UniProtKB/TrEMBL annotation:
Belongs to the multicopper oxidase family. Pfam families: Cu-oxidase, Cu-oxidase_2, Cu-oxidase_3. The keyword ATP-binding does not apply. Its main location: secreted. This is Laccase. One of its GO terms (cellular component) is apoplast. One of its GO terms (molecular function) is copper ion binding. Keywords: Apoplast, Copper, Glycoprotein, Lignin degradation, Metal-binding, Oxidoreductase, Repeat, Secreted, Signal. Residues 42-154, 167-317, 434-562 form the Plastocyanin-like domain. The lineage of its organism: Eukaryota, Viridiplantae, Streptophyta, Embryophyta, Tracheophyta.
Length: 580
């Protein structure tokens, strides 16, 4: 006998009961969505500074499209490459728990997407909310291929600060009249420093302080007596930036998509790769004025740099009864710190503290399983084939290194090699955990500035608690280095100037509420101490986010092995993973 079908009303009741039961057992999925995006990598003619060039873009937009999601959402982003350049996209700051195949750095977690090919980046946002960003992660293509990632809290979860009237992404970039691929190619051939940008930009616009750019100005239009959430992103290639709005105070509430204890400031420092959410509380009454919002570089190195200022304009909505013309209003300018104001930078970074509340705790590793000491800085390699070069001397080329190892990019992806167990000819797991030859790192530099090279990695067991000291060096001049670690957030437990002292400095570490980040500035002529838990299996890139230093080799990678449990293992590679 065949079974009799259930009446529709009974079926519906059973179905709804099952849905309710499922959501009760899995509350995380109750409102989580799968969001689909498509990125067409294509050439687009763009004009800035009265100069038109064909640049690599996403969907013809510069900057690229906004990704919006909620904590817990799954993202499926199909990237189709229509240009001659190979491409890969990195979702900067996304933890990528067990989904390292979607992290994006070319030849680290994937082979690049070649012309005419596509790849679907598939990942879930776990335990994160705030502002992050995406960008190309191959050569210097991120100069034009970048955009914001806005992660809203879960439904029903409020911000731990006043609800803003409006949220506004503000993304800083650099504009080059020339082709950035040609710029870095020439620099690597000659051994010299690359040409610098022609302008900084806010949301792709240089603003009125540059020639031919009055109409290419970002304007933030606000109402009196309101609170605005500004989502700041530094997508510049090679410059840390000061940012300020004339006659207004900003309240910092978030760094790198992690809530911080709120504090007020008139000026922020934001390094390449870093993000910050700040609250702007507008004046209670119409001010009869306009206000510049400006950014310019913080400079510690000895090389050339783009010494210019980008400006947007903060404009108040004119009251309906007013006859004032905006063109006649006075325009106030902020006073930014001096270009080399390391004292301001130190004071600003010392104010950063995790919220460390019951709802948003700071899970700082209290014990350390493995300690590492990495020197970071510039160096040299000899000119090739008796050529004359444009490095520090005419017989040398600029190079950069970590623990005197300048990283050589492989020609196949490290994660694929690791996962398949075919690593012998691709990389070696013997990256030095301390400098081979210690010296006075911030004192008189040694006579020998040559660095070694290789594709060397550090291997960590799952759930290893790591403490890493990053020490700047004065070889070819002390300089600030914004270091970005893929696949993890870390806690900045200490920092200082001079050489790190392992006997005295740990006593001053903050293990209660240190700021949690994914990109940290190693102080010029100083050190920074970070801690993280290696709870994410895969291969994870770490590099300076000054693109010129990455090109010179200031980068390395970590392998985190699988844990014993099924949810501690890297997921298998997707079927459409690009091939080299």
């Amino acid at each position: 006998m065949g079974a009799s079908p259930l009446p529709f009303s009974t079926f519906l009741a059973v179905f709804l009961l099952l849905c309710f039961t499922t959501l009760s057992f899995f509350p995380e999925t109750a409102h989580a969505l799968t969001r689909h995006y498509k990125f067409d990598i294509k050439l687009q003619n763009v004009t800035r500074l009265c100069h038109t060039k064909s640049l690599v873009s996403v969907n013809g937009q510069f900057p690229g499209p906004r990704i919006v999601a909620r904590e817990g959402d799954r993202l499926l982003i199909k990237v189709v490459n229509h240009v001659q350049n190979n491409i890969s996209i990195h979702w900067h700051g996304i933890r990528q728990l067990r989904s390292g195949w979607a992290d994006g750095p070319a030849y680290i977690t994937q082979c690049p997407i070649q012309t005419g090919q596509s790849y679907v980046y598939n990942f879930t946002i776990v335990g994160q909310r705030g502002t992050l960003w995406w960008h190309a992660h191959i050569s210097w293509l991120r100069s034009t291929v970048y955009g914001p990632i806005i992660i809203l809290p879960k439904h029903g979860v409020p911000y731990p600060f006043v609800k803003p009237h409006k949220e506004v992404p503000i993304i800083f970039g650099e504009w080059f009249n020339a082709d950035t691929e040609a710029i870095i190619s020439q620099a690597l051939q000659t051994g010299g420093g690359p040409n610098v940008s022609d302008a900084y930009t806010i949301n792709g616009l240089p603003g009125p302080l540059y020639n031919c750019s009055a109409n290419d100005t970002f304007k933030l239009k606000v109402k009196p007596g309101k609170t605005y959430l500004l989502r700041l992103i530094n997508a510049a290639l090679n410059d840390e930036l000061f940012f300020s709005i004339a006659n207004h105070t900003l309240t910092v509430v978030d760094m790198d998509a992690v809530y911080v204890k709120p504090f007020e400031t008139e000026t922020l420092l934001i390094a390449p790769g870093q993000t910050s959410n700040v609250l702007l509380k507008t004046k209670l009454h119409y001010p009869n004025a306009k206000f510049f919002m400006t950014a310019r570089p913080y400079v510690t190195g000895q090389g050339t740099f783009d010494n210019s200022t980008v400006a947007g304009i903060l404009e108040y909505e004119i009251p309906s009864h007013s006859s004032v013309s905006t063109g006649k209003l006075p325009l106030f300018k902020p006073i930014l710190p001096a270009l080399n104001d390391t004292s301001f930078v130190t004071n600003f970074t010392n104010k950063l503290r995790s919220l460390a509340s019951a709802q948003f705790p700071a899970n700082v590793p209290q014990k350390v399983d493995k300690q590492f000491f990495f020197t970071v800085g510039l160096g040299t390699i000899p000119c090739l084939s008796n050529r004359t070069c444009q490095g520090p001397t005419n017989r040398t080329m600029f190079q950069a290194s970590i623990n005197n190892v300048s990283f050589v990019m492989p020609t196949t992806a490290l994660l694929q090699s690791h996962y398949s167990g075919q690593s012998n000819s691709v990389y070696s797991p013997n990256f030095p955990i301390y400098p081979k030859n210690p010296f006075n790192y911030t004192g008189t530099p040694p006579n020998n500035t040559m660095v070694s090279n290789g594709t060397k990695l550090v291997v960590l067991s799952f759930n290893t608690s790591v403490e890493l000291i990053l020490q700047d060096t004065s070889i070819l001049g002390a300089e600030s280095h914004p270091l970005h670690l893929h696949g993890f957030n870390f806690y900045v437990v200490g920092q200082g100037f001079g050489n790190y002292d392992k006997n005295k400095d740990p006593a001053k570490f903050n293990l209660i509420d240190p700021v949690e980040r994914n990109t940290v500035g190693v102080p010029s002529g100083g050190w920074v101490a970070i801690r993280f838990l290696a709870d994410n299996p895969g291969v994870w890139f770490m590099h300076c986010h000054l693109e010129v230093h990455t090109s010179w080799g200031l980068k390395m990678a970590w392998i985190v092995l699988d844990g014993n449990l099924p949810n501690q293992k890297l997921l298998p590679p997707p079927s459409d993973l690009p091939k080299c």
